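User: I'm new to structure prediction. If I give you an amino acid sequence, what do you actually give back? Let's try with this one:
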Amino acid sequence: MAHKTFISYKYSESRELRDRIIQAMGSDAAYYTGETSESPDMSDLKTATIRKKLADMIYSTSVTIVIISPHMKESNWIDWEIEYSLTQTTRNDRTSRINGVVGVVMKVNGGYDWFIHPRINCHGTQVVTYDNSLLYPIVSNNHFNSEPEQWHCSQCKTFDWLNGSYIEYVKEEDFLLNPSMYVENAYTKSQNGGAGYRLQRTRKN
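Assistant: Good question. You get back a string of structure tokens that encode the predicted 3D arrangement of the chain. For your 205 residues, that looks like this:
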């Protein structure tokens, strides 16, 4: 089932990946409401005007795709867009639900070692950790936050990959192969207000 989506990203380093995500959506791209390569430049607009335009784009969506890139924290808008996505907003007596959110990790110089670091768990199997210092707290605090915890392995405290986090991180190549699967997973977790997760809905910068 297609869902209306919005992509939150740092324009200067992620716009090409944004375009590839939209292309990979195929016919579901008709439900995408965010910026495209054809969108007018908003950089010269006042902050309040930009915020209103972004809110209008996000309000009717049900899933926000966040591109996790090396300098995303330099963006003036990503953390605000996520906060808005996780907030119920009332307009004309209609209250929106919170969005599902999925993080797409950008490949840099052919790999992901700028953000993803392997380790070995108690079974001798390779698992990964992430460099949360590169993320806004509203992203990192909504990762590994299922309640109760959904473990892949409770012995070595390895969270279930897709369902142990409200905001899951997916490598760009995996997401591009099957975007509908990850969008649907994010949407499912958003139902009932994200019940089952310790959601952080406000920025803590």
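You can read the tokens as a compact description of the fold. Here is one thing that stands out. The first strand starts at residue 5 and ends at 8.
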